[in-house]
Specification:
A hairpin with a 5-residue loop joins strand 26 (467-471) and strand 27. 22% of the residues lie in helices and 33% in strands. Mean pLDDT is 94; it is low at 1-5 and 11-21. The longest helix is centred in the middle third of the chain and has 25 residues, at 267-291. It is an alpha+beta fold. The radius of gyration is 28 Å and the shape is elongated. The two termini are 17 Å apart. Residues 1-21 form the signal peptide.
C-alpha cells in the first residue's frame, strides 16, 4: 500500500531538449535480393521511387563487379539521388587463398567514393589467427585508399554476432575496422532479449545496421530458409520497433539497410510496405525517446537538487539493469525545479553514475572508480578524479568548505577529496557495513548502510543496514538510536530534525528521528533508490529504479 497525502509519481514530462536532437538517420537502404527479373536501371528507378537512399549486394566476381558499374551508371546513382554505401564480400578460407586475395583486392579497388567493404568470414578452415592476419592486410590496403573494412556477422559463419567481432577489432586496434548490428543474425544468435546490451558493448564500432521483420522464435534452417528471421518490416511477431529504439538509445549515426534475403513477394509490394513501416517506427521511437520518462530515464539511481542552478539532476546507470560495468553508457538527466525534463542526456559517456553532490558551481558524481567533476553552467566534464582501490563508488556528500566524501559499498570505505583536490581513504572499517547513502550534518557524516554483504553479485546481506554517524574530525562511528537492523538503505537526507531514508529492497521511504525511532512514510514501491531534497520547499525526489520514473514527495504535507 502507498501511504501519504502528497506524492506525485512522475510518468511523463514535457520541455525536453535532446543532446542528439535529430535521432538516428532516417534514410533507409536495401539489399537487392530476389530482383533478378528486373534490369539494374529498373531496380534503381524503383528504389528511388519508393524513397530508398541506396542499395547493397555481393561483389566478388566479374559479373557482380559489372553489376556494380551498371548501378553506378544509372541516372539515379550518377545524379547522387542514390548511393552504394557498402558491398559485401564472402571470404572463403577453403578456397585458394591467393585467388580469394586477388578477388577482395579487385572489389576493394572497385568501390565508389565513401563506400566500405563488408566482409563475411565463411567458416570452413577459418581460424582466429588466419582471420586476424587477413583483416590486418585488408585494413592496411583499405587505409591506402581511404576506405573502411566492416565485419559482417552472419549465422553459421566464423563470426556470428556483433559481440564476437569485438575480438578482432580489439586485436587489430586500427581506426578503419568496424562491425555491423544485424537484427536477423542477432536473433539467430539468441540475442533477441538483450539487443540493448549487445548494442551498448559494440556501439563505438557499429557503422551499419540491418533490419528486417522477424519472428521471436527462430527455427532450424538446414535448407537456408530464412523466412523466420527475414521478412518485410510489417510482418513477424517480434516487435521490430525495439530494435529501432535500441538504435535511438545508443545514438547510432550509421546507415541502416533493409534485409530482403529470401523474401518471395513482388519487390515493389514488400519494399513499399517496409519503407512506410520504417518511417513510422523512426518517428514513433524518437518521439517516445524524447517525451516519455520511462524512455528518458534508464535505471535511475540518484536524484540531487542543486540550489544554485535551481535544477534537479538524475543519474542513470543505463542498460536497463543494475550494473557497475564500465561501458560508457551512463548519463545525467537534468530537470527544472518542478521535475520537468530540461535535457534528456545533459552529460553522457559516463559508465554507471550513482550518487551526486554539488559545490561552487560544480556537480560531483560517483562513477566506476572515479569522482567526476562537472561544471554545471555548461555540463562540461572538467576532471575525473581516480579513487584508488575503489570498486563500487556509490554516494557523494559535500561540506560547505568544499570537502567531498564518497562511499564505496564493496570496500567498506569512505573517500575524502579535500578542497585542494587531494584524495585519501578517509575511513575503511567493517563497522560501516557496506556504506551507501551519505549526508553531511554539521560535524558529522550520516551514513546509511546497506548491511553486511554476503554476495556482491546479488547484493544479499546477512542482516539489514542501519543509520550511523561518523564524526568528521575524530572518525568515531556511532549508531543512530540502538543500531538495530532497519533496511537495506540506499539514500539519506535530513529535513527539520528527521532523517528520510530509502529502503531499496523493501520499496519504502522511512522517517527516522535522531534517537532512532522509525516510521514508514511510503510503502509499496519497487527499488526506491537514492533520494534528493529541495530544502527550501521540503520536496523530495526519489528515483524508482526498476520503473524508470521518480516519486515527488511534499514533506510539508505530512
Amino acid at each position: 500500500m502507498i501511504k501519504g497525502k502528497s506524492i506525485l509519481v512522475a510518468l511523463a514530462t514535457l520541455s525536453v531538449v535532446l543532446s542528439n536532437a535529430q535521432g538516428i538517420e532516417k534514410s533507409l537502404y536495401a539489399f537487392d535480393f530476389k530482383m533478378d527479373g528486373m534490369s539494374v536501371p529498373e531496380r534503381s528507378r524503383l528504389f528511388a521511387e519508393l524513397g530508398y537512399k541506396g542499395v547493397t549486394f555481393a561483389v566478388k566476381n566479374d559479373g557482380q563487379r559489372q553489376k556494380l558499374l551498371e548501378y553506378l551508371g544509372s541516372p539515379e546513382f550518377s545524379s547522387g539521388k542514390l548511393s552504394i554505401p557498402i558491398v559485401y564480400f564472402p571470404f572463403d578460407f577453403s578456397q585458394d587463398y591467393a585467388s580469394e586475395r586477388e578477388l577482395w583486392k579487385k572489389t576493394l579497388n572497385a568501390l565508389p567514393k565513401n563506400a566500405s567493404l563488408w566482409v563475411i568470414i565463411l567458416e570452413p578452415n577459418a581460424t582466429e589467427q588466419k582471420v586476424i592476419a587477413l583483416l590486418k592486410e585488408m585494413t592496411a590496403e583499405a587505409e591506402k585508399l581511404g576506405k573502411d573494412i566492416v565485419l559482417y556477422p552472419h549465422d553459421n559463419t566464423f563470426i556470428e554476432s556483433a559481440e564476437e567481432s569485438l575480438t578482432y577489432i580489439d586485436a587489430l586496434n586500427t581506426n578503419n575496422l568496424y562491425t555491423t548490428l544485424h537484427l536477423c543474425h542477432e536473433m539467430r544468435a539468441g540475442n533477441g532479449n538483450r539487443l540493448l546490451d549487445v548494442a551498448i558493448k559494440t556501439a563505438p564500432y557499429v557503422k551499419f545496421a540491418s533490419i528486417s521483420g522477424t519472428d521471436v522464435t527462430m527455427r532450424e534452417n538446414d535448407k537456408a530458409d530464412w523466412s523466420d528471421a527475414i521478412q518485410p518490416l510489417d510482418k513477424g511477431d517480434f516487435e521490430v520497433e525495439k530494435f529501432v529504439s535500441v538504435l535511438q538509445k545508443i545514438g547510432f549515426k550509421g546507415k541502416t539497410i533493409l534485409h530482403t534475403f529470401g523474401i518471395e513477394e513482388e519487390p515493389k509490394n514488400h519494399l513499399s510496405r517496409s519503407m512506410l513501416k520504417w518511417k513510422d517506427m523512426v518517428e514513433a521511437t524518437y518521439t517516445n525517446f524524447s517525451n516519455n520518462l520511462d524512455q528518458i530515464l534508464d535505471t535511475p539511481e540518484n536524484a540531487y537538487w542543486d540550489t544554485g542552478s535551481k535544477s534537479w539532476f538524475i543519474s542513470n546507470l543505463g542498460g536497463e539493469k543494475v550494473t557497475i560495468e564500465k561501458d560508457g553508457y551512463g548519463w545525467i538527466t537534468r530537470l527544472d525545479e518542478n521535475g520537468n525534463v530540461l535535457k534528456n542526456r545533459w552529460v553522457e559517456g559516463l559508465d554507471a553514475p550513482t550518487g551526486m553532490s554539488s559545490h561552487d558551481g560544480h556537480l560531483y558524481v560517483a562513477d566506476r572508480g572515479v569522482l567526476v567533476k562537472i561544471r554545471i553552467e555548461d555540463g562540461k566534464i572538467e576532471k575525473k578524479i581516480p579513487l584508488p582501490g575503489s570498486r563500487f563508488a556509490n554516494d557523494v556528500a559535500a561540506t560547505p568548505e568544499g570537502n567531498i566524501y564518497v562511499s564505496d559499498t564493496y570496500e567498506n570505505s569512505i573517500y575524502r577529496i579535500d578542497n585542494k583536490g587531494n584524495v585519501e581513504i578517509f575511513l575503511q572499517n567493517e563497522e560501516l557495513e557496506c556504506p551507501n547513502g551519505l549526508w553531511v550534518d554539521g560535524d558529522d557524516l550520516i551514513v546509511a548502510t546497506w548491511g553486511p554483504m554476503t554476495n556482491e553479485a546479488t547484493f544479499e546481506t546477512s542482516r539489514k543496514g542501519t543509520l550511523k554517524t561518523v564524526n568528521l574530525k575524530t572518525k568515531e562511528i556511532v549508531a543512530v538510536g540502538k543500531g538495530l537492523p532497519i533496511a537495506n538503505f540506499d539514500g539519506v537526507v535530513k529535513y527539520k530534525g528527521f532523517y528520510y531514508a530509502t529502503d531499496w529492497v523493501g520499496g519504502r521511504l522511512l522517517k527516522i528521528s535522531e534517537t532512532g525511532n522509525v516510521n514508514e512514510v511510503l510503502t509499496g514501491f519497487v527499488q526506491m533508490a537514492d533520494l534528493g531534497i529541495d530544502p527550501e520547499r521540503g520536496t523530495l525526489l526519489i528515483p524508482e529504479m526498476s520503473k524508470n520514473r521518480f516519486i515527488k514527495v511534499d514533506l510539508e504535507s505530512f
